[in-house]
Design brief:
two-stranded antiparallel sheet, four-stranded antiparallel beta sheet, alpha+beta, 2 domains, single chain, about 425 residues, about 65% helix
């Protein structure tokens, strides 16, 4: 049974075919990849042997398959099938075991166990919820075309950080917001990529990656750091510079970065998609295909529910920050730069290290640098604009020390 067909020539396509449509005892289907020739879309459909199918983004035009991909799906809404679908959600990541911390975080908050326990439990509860948010976003993306799917994944990939930032803004913790955003960039550039290099180097003597895409991401990061560094330079070099001037400049910079982010989406999804995909066809031979197992309605509903839960636990987390500084004896900088970024990036961190261990360094670098670029071009400007709407004076004036650390980290990545 045909699972996916991707056009690679006028009359050629790469097909992912199921060798065992019914699945084995564990419900897994064997897959093989082969190159096929065709003259029309109907010829491709004939491989499905009459199964119920849904071809996305494909059409018959002048005897060519002009869409980006064709997917065959079989929908079974029986009780057993529904149980299997949610079993896959539960087993999607070992991080889901941390969901057990959720009720204890709520009890700790309302039973006054203390700010320290509430902070730790809320932090643990948010990690799997951020991972599930990414999973549900991917399931929604299966029902869209490539452009919308890529935009959904890019946007909702930062939703956890944005929600925590907005909740912290509402409480007036502006420094925590700035430090957490900076910490997200640092953790992706240093912790994630460094871990990927070490793990990948241990398991493989040589590693390959797409130098063009890596250079593009590094250049974008350098541009973002320069834009973010300007307010700090203005404050340090001109003593008469007013706070309002720095704030105005920061807001203009935010709109500029958002514009660049829009151009980046156009670059990745439309004009230079082949650079982003890299060796995706080769990767498909090594790992399982991404699988669609939730209906569109289920995916959207649970995406919304998960976002609501993230908002609630973000409030518990932010409300306990001040008290946890005293109870746990840790600084606000450590909370903002180290702990909070772990919440939204833990699943991506684990994924980057795992794929590096399998020798897919290009994908590992794409995860690390891509996430850092999204925070820089999308997360930071959106938070600055959101603060403006909320009547909070959040600027991009990081301290001189923070600016130097951020610049040095990005420069190190760019020179690798």
């Amino acid at each position: 049974r045909l699972l996916e067909a991707r056009k690679i020539g006028d009359q050629k396509a790469i097909a992912i075919v199921s060798e065992n449509p019914e699945g084995d005892s564990e419900g897994k289907m064997g897959r093989r990849r082969e190159e096929i020739e065709f003259t029309s879309l109907s010829e491709i459909k004939s491989l499905t042997n009459g199964d119920e199918e849904e071809a996305l983004g494909a059409e018959e035009s002048n005897g060519r398959l002009t869409g980006q991909r064709s997917r065959v799906r079989s929908q079974d809404h029986s009780d057993s099938s529904r149980f299997l679908r949610w079993d896959k959600v539960a087993k999607s990541s070992y991080l889901n075991y941390l969901l057990l911390a959720s009720p204890f975080a709520i009890i700790s908050y309302f039973a006054n166990w203390g700010a320290g326990p509430t902070f730790i439990l809320s932090l643990l509860a948010l990690i799997p919820q951020a991972q599930l948010l990414g999973l549900f976003t991917e399931q929604v993306a299966f029902y869209t075309n490539e452009a919308i799917g890529g935009l959904l994944n890019a946007t909702f990939g930062n939703l956890t950080e944005l929600i925590i930032s907005v909740v912290a803004l509402n409480k007036g913790l502006l420094n925590i917001v700035k430090m957490s955003l900076m910490g997200s960039i640092l953790s992706n550039c240093l912790l994630v990529m460094g871990s990927a290099f070490i793990v990948g180097g241990i398991s493989h003597k040589s590693q390959r990656f797409n130098i063009q895409m890596a250079s593009t991401n590094s250049g974008l990061l350098m541009m973002c750091v320069l834009a973010i560094a300007f307010p700090a330079v203005m404050v340090e070099t001109e003593t008469n510079r007013s706070a309002q001037a720095v704030l105005t400049f920061s807001r203009l910079t935010a709109f500029t970065l958002l514009s660049v982010y829009g151009l980046l989406m156009l670059f990745q999804i439309k004009t230079h998609r082949h650079l982003v995909e890299g060796d995706r066809e080769a990767d498909e031979d090594e790992d399982e295909e991404e699988e669609q197992f939730l209906s569109w309605k289920e995916s959207v509903i649970w995406l919304f529910i998960d976002a609501v839960f993230i908002s609630g636990f973000s409030k518990l987390l932010v409300d306990s920050i001040e008290g946890s500084v005293k109870d746990l004896g840790i600084s606000k900088m450590f909370i903002g730069v180290i702990l909070i970024p772990i919440v939204g990036n833990a699943a991506e961190h684990a994924a980057a290290v795992m794929v590096a261990y399998r020798g897919r360094m290009e994908l590992a670098m794409g995860i690390a640098l891509g996430s850092a670029v999204q925070i820089s071009l999308f997360g930071i400007p959106v938070v600055v604009i959101a603060a403006w709407i909320m009547n909070r004076d959040l600027d991009l004036n990081f301290s001189l020390f923070q600016t130097v650390v951020l610049s040095g980290s990005v420069l190190t990545v760019g020179l690798l």
